[in-house]
Amino acid sequence: MTKALDEVGIGGIGASRKRVEDSRFIRGQGRYTDDIVLPGMLHMEILRSPMAHARIKSIDASKAWEIPGVRLVLTGEMAATRNLAWMPTLSYDTQAVLATDKVRFQGQEVACVVADDPYIAKDACDAIDVEYEPLPVVVNPEQALAEDAPVIRDDKAGQDGNVVYHWEVGDKAGTDRAFANADRISKLRLHYPRSHPSPIECCASVADYDRATQKLTVYMTTQAPHIVRAAVAMIAELPEHMIRIVSPDIGGGFGNKVPVYPGYVCSILCSILLERPVKWIEDKTGNLISTGFARDMYLDSELALREDGKILGVRIHADADHGAFFADAQPSKFKIGLLHSAFACYDIPAAHLTARGVYTNKAPGGVAYRCSFRVTEAMFFQERMVHQAAKDLGIDPAEFRRRNFVRADQFPYRTPFGFLVDSGQPEKCLDVGLEAIGYENFLKQKEEARKRGRLLGIGISTMTEPLGAGNSREYDILGIKMFDSAELRVHLTGKALLRVGTKSQGQGHETTWAQIVSHELGIPAEDVTVEEGDTDTAPFGMGTYASRSTPVGGAAISMVSRKIRAKARKLAAHLLEVSEEDVEWELGRFYVRGVPDRGVTIQECAMAAYSNMPDGMEPGLENHAYYDPPNLTWPFAVYIATVEVDPESGVWDVLNLVAVDDCGVRINPMIVEGQIMGGLTEAYAMSNMQFITFDEEGNCVGSNYMDYLLPTAWETPGFELHSEVVTPSPHHPIGAKGIGECAAVGGPAAFVNAVMDALDGTGVRNIDMPLLPDRVWQALRTGQDVS
Ligand code: CDP
């Protein structure tokens, strides 16, 4: 008698299956954009502006044209003849492709050269003579909003200042009442500094316009190939099937590869003009100074508190520095992303948020770096504020959180900002975390150490965040709803090909997507091949960012598998010669109700779909599903760090970091752990060492890896991960919630709170990230906040 399969044994949900993609990655056999070589291919380099704000008086490219091997020098003026000097952004703004009137940030694209090899192209860029007339430079919101500030976007009709938008959400009157009734008000002003996702592989494209077929193929490092195809179709007024966007292997994205950058557009235009394939490979500094920065937000927040520790209301004002173009991608309804998801794990009666976006002379900023549209800023501010409020009230920060958490029986919980948090067990997660770190014991150690002049600190960060944008009622990019898709073909041998609208940049989709099919159909994961990233073959999807792949794409995979199963059931009934109602399912096989020995496997059904289908049934076993999620999924996380600060130098070391992540059902526990470890490493880097900023002239400081530090195994502390709390999402077909970004979102506050805790009693309320030793030392020496 055939038995139902052991799900983990066939690589289904819960199996820590080794990543199948790694066999090619670790052998150097990945196929990245730079590996693509086409016959007759030329190479493109970009000339970037050395100045942050300057009028372009003239561009003389005559010397560049004289260099042997140069095929094209493209300037903004030439691009304008094709109506391509400017392009629309994913946030309904416009962005210069190649500057025509003036440059607005250091590193902006001014011209590009196409040549026989990249070195000739680079030399030719250096030979272009650009005459600039410097203009006053604006590098932060305060300067941008000053009365005498130069208008950066004077290209836009009606733009008379540097404000991009004003946005507001929540209940102002109710929040004012809560503050009027408060026993105490706790305030904090914070800056979440600019950071750069800095993927190992920079942006790249190979554009190939075929004059004979008039088809445009672009290989490029994009996390969202279908969005790019839609944008190109709209700009170029070409039908979608004449455009093929292929996203091959990607060496990290983290949100950096969502926007459409000028380099991509230039390579396309050059290929069309030259009728030859054109390759553009960005260099590291080009990537660091000109592509999607994240964060850069100033935040004033206030909590209205009752003496017993109850939070009565929250007021938030955010100033977001978007740089020269509002070019990040986010749902069109939410100007400042999902910043208003702040405080969603706390039961707070009233909340109000105002936000203002500003233009500055910096590269476009605000991309969701491992983050669902500003939730990183939201959770950082939330947890810094909660820590400070607890201190202000003299209540233990763990206890303060406990008093304000949404209780497990309150879910689904409607936040004052309107989100519906699907599920969670905040208190239970906190208990696990406190137990693991040895909370009470550490507090005693801290007191003892103090007596000997040692500064120990413990910092907690707890949060739930909205992952899986999102339902079509509220979420769209450029008007396209944020559903996702899957197409499944089960061949007659029972092997399967799965194509999904998401696009992995290293997250392991080829492994985990097969596991979902395995879970639904009982086909061993190793028999399922996963493909993503080619718009000619993948179904239309919105791509991978904001940890939306599992909540949306993963759900689509379940749904398409279930459609396949429904057809297989009919085939099983036919093969077993019983009615469909008498057919039962167990993993991998159907059997006759009450007669478990009489059954057929899913593979036998697959064979029948092509060789022995019942009369009237369409042959084949394939289908597709588009999934419009009813809600976002809400993972919950607790991160607790302990640190020791050296009072002589300001250097701080992490003693321990405990992470408790409840992301519902884990498809592949090993991959989930990898995601958390990676996120915590980034969180540690942001809080401890990563610094990329701009001087008064708008020069980017930190535009190379000598200055912008990536943590290696040497600096990165160890992390202790806990997975015992599992709250399945009630609306996701397999109960999974997103996880990719949680630790990067929630982690920074744990480290910063720990350092601030170590500084208890010094009068210092805040040190802005990164908490470099000199900043901590300065705070210790002066007893003043450091911003
Ligand atoms: O959108 P992105 O892939 O970056 O994020 P995600 O949906 O959170 O998934 C990251 C990786 O973790 C994928 O390989 C997922 O399949 C896996 N994952 C999992 O195994 N179980 C979960 N509950 C969530 C994600």
Automatic annotation (TrEMBL):
Domain of life: Bacteria
Single GO MF descriptor: carbon-monoxide oxygenase activity
EC primary class: oxidoreductase
Keyword Transit peptide included in the entry's annotation: no
Keywords assigned: Molybdenum, Oxidoreductase
Residue ranges of domain Aldehyde oxidase/xanthine dehydrogenase a/b hammerhead in the record: 27-136
Its EC number(s): 1.2.5.3
Annotated InterPro entries: Ald_Oxase/Xan_DH_a/b (IPR000674), Ald_Oxase/Xan_DH_a/b_sf (IPR036856), Ald_Oxase/xanthine_DH-like (IPR016208), AldOxase/xan_DH_MoCoBD1 (IPR008274), AldOxase/xan_DH_MoCoBD2 (IPR046867), AldOxase/xan_DH_Mopterin-bd_sf (IPR037165), CO_Mo_DH_lsu (IPR012780)
Keyword Oxidoreductase: yes
PANTHER family in the record: ALDEHYDE OXIDASE 1-RELATED (PTHR11908:SF132), XANTHINE DEHYDROGENASE (PTHR11908)
Stated name of the protein: Aerobic carbon-monoxide dehydrogenase large subunit
Organism: Amycolatopsis heterodermiae
